[in-house]
């Protein structure tokens, strides 16, 4: 399966709910299940990230050398495919299982590469949304704040009319996620899946949520 086929398939699956969820989970498992279980692919992407790790530093994100992080042999389609395969697909294939989050860091680093280099601003909206969704999933406050800055910028607001539903959904999700990270330093609803002990404050929140 090509990188283009991965991205094109994913475009039609944004924010699927209710009766569509199980159907799409199964479809993504059939199409991409082999990729997310491919240890060679994971290692290849992880090696790239380790090699380039210093360029993803928050403290350096506005320095000029950040621009260099995209000057490598990984084409845009390949990096976008990695974000989809390692961020969203596991959430569908492994729904309710801790494996759904195991490769988040791989996808996040590719997403941050696009954002911090400014390369995201050269991409069409559906590419940008895929990148921003991966950042939405982070339990790191700095990532959520950086995402909030971008969503509030003219680079994103320019799409509020032409892609109103998706842009509004992303804004609402980011705001909600940042508030929860500020309050709990993590997403409490993941605790039972990841085997984390919930605090009393989190238990009260979850009781109200469900």
UniProtKB/TrEMBL annotation:
Coiled coil: none annotated. It comes from Aplanochytrium stocchinoi. InterPro entries: DUF924, TPR-like_helical_dom_sf. SUPFAM superfamilies: TPR-like. Gene3D superfamilies: Tetratricopeptide repeat domain, TPR-like. Pfam families: DUF924. This is DUF924 domain-containing protein.
